[in-house]
Design a protein that fits this description.
It is a single chain. The chain has helices at about 15-25, 40-45, 65-75, 95-100, 115-130, and strands at about 5-10, 30-35, 55, 85-90, 105-110. With about 130 residues, the protein is an alpha/beta fold. It has a single domain, classed as Response regulator (Rossmann fold, 3-Layer(aba) Sandwich), CATH 3.40.50.2300. A five-stranded parallel β-sheet has the order 2-1-3-4-5, sandwiched between helices. Helix 2 (about 40-45) packs parallel to helix 3 (about 65-75).
């Protein structure tokens, strides 16, 4: 990652505490961070013209799952160039396989990572994808 560049990041998570914590951690780096507490909020942000370099999304959310959100984003061709990272407690193989089939670039299980590790892993995934 270019240390002199600010990267645009959208984090989608219905857990307000975790959303705020992850937003805070990323803001300490070179990130212009937007948080969304639902798939609908994320779509409003994206449809409003925010173009993220990185999209981090939870899978289990009320009303619209992370998978449904990703399907909509792909169908509408918004955030087409974003590196997509799933950040979820769903660590089962079927979820991971479905995410891979949907073109997700990285998969992080919340329960086994602290917020600073999430930042490190997302930066690593982004760096590998943008080579």
């Amino acid at each position: 990652m270019d240390k002199d560049k600010t990267y645009r990041l959208l984090i989608v998570d219905d857990d307000k505490f975790l959303l705020d914590m992850h937003c805070m951690k990323f803001k300490k780096g070179n990130f212009d961070v937007h948080g969304a507490s639902s798939g609908a909020d994320a779509l409003t942000t994206l449809r409003g013209g925010f173009v993220p370099d990185i999209l981090i999304l939870d899978l289990v959310m009320p009303t619209m799952s992370g998978f449904q959100l990703l399907e909509t984003i792909k169908a509408e061709h918004i955030a087409d160039k974003a590196v997509v990272v799933v950040l979820t407690n769903q660590g089962q193989s079927p979820d991971i396989e479905k995410a891979k089939k949907m073109g997700v670039d990285g998969y992080i299980v919340k329960a086994s990572t602290i917020p600073s590790e999430v930042v490190e892993q997302v930066i690593k995934i982004f760096g590998e994808k943008k080579k």
